[in-house]
């Protein structure tokens, strides 16, 4: 019995950040990295299943990212994951969520888990598509934004609840193995003490290359992606201005501004 | 000729006079039985302690022994802040010790030197002086006992009330009436032994009144002689006296033997355990917490056997005097914590589990929870680690390491307030509790008209360790900038670590997150080692404590001072000059980590004097200062709804000072806590809370630019 949990090391912005010179991302010097918040909840959900199970349950976490992402995996190992895997190859740089899903799906084929959990979305890029794309590639049943889960390891089906608009709960049965994207608040993630994180540093993290997964270099990276980043920028803030004077003066000024704003189309 | 002396061989007390040989033998049998029971009890207790872990004591046993004997003889720890209890205990102690020495002397004469060498010294002059001293000792003892009865029975001091804040009346271990019964039984038993001793003495005198070598010297035992006169006046004569003596002899003798036999099983054992506790005391118990050995698999204290033998001994040293209960800020505001009850709970737990012949299974040794003898997480998290309990304990019990070691287990299991959990994660991520970017740590320097050196780049004389609150809290930043200006004006060559500084970790460690503390301490030590400086100064007493007392365990040895001593030096050297005296009526709040932890009581007071302030002390000052409630990580946890707050309690105390203008603090957390408390207790507009640094700035500034102290806008 095995649960695969896909996690991501996300970035949050430091104070006074700068955009990279190519204009496509934030300069990595200004990023503070941490385990994606949603993944904290999906790992916790897996841990709960493991801890209440009568049979042995193995929890395997997988992450796509460079060596720096090991820190996120260590946190998962500290919380009790049994094994951690990191997929990386320089060719992966520039992948979109579909290309990432290809890699996770390849791991799922290799590991053959009974369940695959992912977070609803990542805190930095917020595509909310990696988990579901993985399910599509695997041709597994899937459910997004899962807020409650009843699942006994080894069972053929699981019952999930999803929150819909207006506080309506959507309860459904899903066949396993399935891909579930887990919503915040489904549980209370445990605290991983620094001591357990340090101890986790001694546990091995298996690094998988594209070759090991049988994925070709052109299936990932910008070339293997369905979307590409054009630019990343901070929009200029709009400015408001009070128009003063008599009604006539105000109207005249307003007309002037409108003319200025639409010179060609007017 | 009643008070004349004589060397006559016949002047003594004949032991077992007129006893049948079988009666003497019976007495010895009972005596040996009592000693056997005593020794068995000692064995059980020692076995209990040995079930604890090894303690890392630094040796120095001779010094430790001397210090213990001094404490016991001078009674200073018992008399502190309770002179009458100290005086009464002195009477009991010295009375008891003299009587004990007396009994030992008789044993030496009758059972050792006599039979072995035919040597008898317990006669003549020696005997007479002996009688006198022991008679006085008995009176001292009885006097002390009577006062203690008065204290328990009539004064009804709140600290002697065993009501538990950490339990509900329905809980199985709420009832402490057995303790109360034991207290009274102890006092009565000792008093009964003393009183029967005097009557026994009197009955013997009446019985042997015809013998001049007894009767003529009777006033050498004045209490006995007086009682003998009373007996004779009441019509008791030789024969009746003899019969009475026989009965009382057995009663007194058996009572005394029973008392000895019961020592290890009752509170009487404190004569050994309290002395032992004093001997193994750690003078930095709260200031320098124990490290977790690297090879340790489990963290913190989960089972009773996770405590060291020294800690188990501390548990047994408690005499329930209630001083820690009285001074605890958590207890004062109604939180479910009394340091006394933590100790007593664990002691009850240790007695139940570790005194049995076979050590129970691990499941029965878990000290966490709400069952009998267990300590709940609500209790542990209520502690501010302010050290008031450790400081006041007359028998050197070290509550703080016990509480923190239990918290370490809670942290490992994630059993803590969600906000605290978040703060710890934030500190891990950003190195500060504000969740601010590391880069912003030195941002407060930007608004200064002069640059502040980066000590990692330029060598400096003084490295200023700023700390989280002083770096990031907007109100404290003003104080921080003021201090920078003072240093600049005094021409001090100083610098800071900018983003190389992390939270010092003092409170993280006291929360029980030892792993994170190690990360912080190691990061700071690394940054410090990259800087070139002579000494460190900090405005934060918390950082001060951990860098001073705990960093050495991690290889970081520095000379560090709190800003109060540095400013005092600068004022005394004339490098800072008071332009105008403030003439304000002020009171000073001793921060826990500056005062109790590091005994920095004088410098801030001396500065206030130099500024021309009139210092009115609060009732609770110096070592008895009252915690603001923020220590031990409590600043990162929400206060319980419906409870009073320590800072409010303190503000109400300050408000009783007539005409108070400024409540002076010297700790960033204090400034935050008390400015809030000032508003919440409705004292805003009556007096103000200020940092000592701000007062110094005011006194140095010229008249026209300086804001008036006292009620500020």
General description of the model:
- The complex is a heterodimer of chains A (266) and B (713).
- Chain A is α/β, with parallel strands linked by helices and 266 residues long.
- Chain A has one domain (2-219): Rossmann fold (3-Layer(aba) Sandwich).
- Chain A contains seven helices and eleven strands.
- Chain A has helices at residues 37-52, 70-79, 97-111, 130-138, 194-200, 210-213, 247-261; strands at residues 2-7, 9-13, 31-35, 58-64, 83-87, 115-119, 142-150, 157-163, 169-175, 179-182, 206-208.
- In chain A, helix 2 (70-79) crosses helix 5 (194-200) and helix 3 (97-111) packs across helix 4 (130-138).
- The longest helix of chain A has 16 residues, at 37-52.
- Chain B has 713 residues and is mainly alpha-helical.
- Chain B folds into four domains: 21-50 and 70-161 and 181-265, Fumarate Reductase Cytochrome B subunit (Up-down Bundle); 300-412, Fumarate Reductase Iron-sulfur Protein, Chain B, domain 2, CATH 1.10.1060; 439-569, Rossmann fold; 578-700, 3-Layer(aba) Sandwich (Rossmann fold).
- Chain B is 52% helix and 4% strand.
- Chain B is built from 28 helices and nine strands.
- Chain B has a five-stranded parallel sheet with strand order 1-3-2-4-5.
Q: What is this structure's SSE topology?
A:
The complex is a heterodimer of chains A (266) and B (713).
Chain A: E1 2-7, E2 9-13, E3 31-35, H1 37-52, E4 58-64, H2 70-79, E5 83-87, H3 97-111, E6 115-119, H4 130-138, E7 142-150, E8 157-163, E9 169-175, E10 179-182, H5 194-200, E11 206-208, H6 210-213, H7 247-261
Chain B: H1 21-50, H2 61-74, H3 76-79, H4 83-117, H5 124-155, H6 177-207, H7 212-215, H8 222-233, H9 238-262, H10 270-279, H11 309-317, H12 323-327, H13 329-332, H14 339-354, H15 377-381, H16 388-392, H17 399-412, H18 418-430, E1 453-454, E2 462-465, H19 468-472, H20 474-489, E3 494-496, H21 506-511, H22 514-529, E4 535-538, H23 541-550, E5 560-562, H24 563-572, E6 585-588, H25 602-610, E7 614-615, H26 646-655, E8 662-665, H27 668-680, E9 688-691, H28 692-700
Parallel strand pairs in B: 1-3, 2-3, 2-4, 4-5, 6-7, 6-8, 8-9
Helix pairs in contact in B: 1-9, 2-10, 4-5, 5-6, 6-8, 6-9, 10-11, 11-14, 24-25
